[in-house]
Amino acid sequence: MMESVRNWFAGDASGAAGQTRWSLVGRIAAGLFAAYLLVCIVLTWWWNEEPDAFDPHEVATRHAERTGARMVTGYTSTATLAELARSLLEKRGGYLSNDLFPPGVWMDNVPNWEFGVLVQIRDASRAMRVDMSRSQSQSAEDRDLAEAEPKFSFDNASWVFPQTEDVYREGIRLLEGYLARLGKPERGGAHFYARADNLRNWLGGVDTRLGSLSQRLSAAVGKRQLDMSLGTRAVGGDDALTGEGDEVGETGDNEVKTPWLEIDDVFYEARGQCWALLHLLRAADEDFAAVLENKNARVSLRQIIRELESTQQPIWSPMILNGTGFGFVANHSLVMASHISRANAGIIDLRALLSQG
Description:
Elements: H1 2-47, H2 56-67, H3 75-90, H4 109-132, H5 143-152, H6 164-183, H7 196-218, E1 223-227, E2 252-256, H8 263-287, H9 289-294, H10 298-310, H11 332-355
Antiparallel strand pairs: 1-2
Helix pairs in contact: 2-3, 3-4, 3-6, 3-8, 4-5, 4-7, 4-8, 5-6, 7-8, 7-11, 8-10, 8-11, 10-11
């Protein structure tokens, strides 16, 4: 009898010790998890910051001094394009669009900003490959630019096999290869033709990008819009335009509105595109200076740059607000759309000046 009582107390003590150990393990695990969440929150705040603007001329000058190259025509634009791509990878937190773990996977503002910058990098790299590095349509493409452009068109969210950062770094390396040959003419093979038609062709793509952004930003409050895709038959035109021989000018009326959860995505993508375009236009102001002066268009370009600078003003609100057009609460998307629309109008006028003899 006494033996069984002693065994019962011993077992009870052992069970209590086991529960104490498991309780301690649970508290340690909860503490570690809380510490992990705290670190993630701090990193989210630290990484949720766009990189500062840089001076394209200073970037190009430092690169030329480091490599012993000459600041020839096109050097600033190429160095700026490479620096934009490098900024995606080397800013706070690095490249976030392909992150699979916290805090990167929780963030959407910076990844959308990254995509906006990437869109302009892709357009500019294509313009350099197709137009600016070739004297005419029958000229051969530059070997480095021909390889660099597809690198920047690679999937922006690839996590592995290959990793997006690795592919973009290879694109930067190819751009710097072209830049090295451009800045040392004795090595031969690299050219940059700062002609009015080349600048106008690139600005044509910029025009469509900004026009689309302006429409998407304006749709933050919703608007009634006619469906112009049905087409109308012009006087003396083809009946096939409408598909109906006697019905002309039939259009649908629908409401276009950006979903509430996507409003900040569109805003930060637009902000990223404007940030990249701002630097590219500053570089063009230097490389295409002779053309712009000849066409009396340099003031127009600089006014476009002023409008784009306004899109980079600090955002004091903790979130992107979506008030009505004339409501009590601000609408950040409409403010951004206003600046982009004015920049787009300036680009249309600038292209008209460049097309004149």
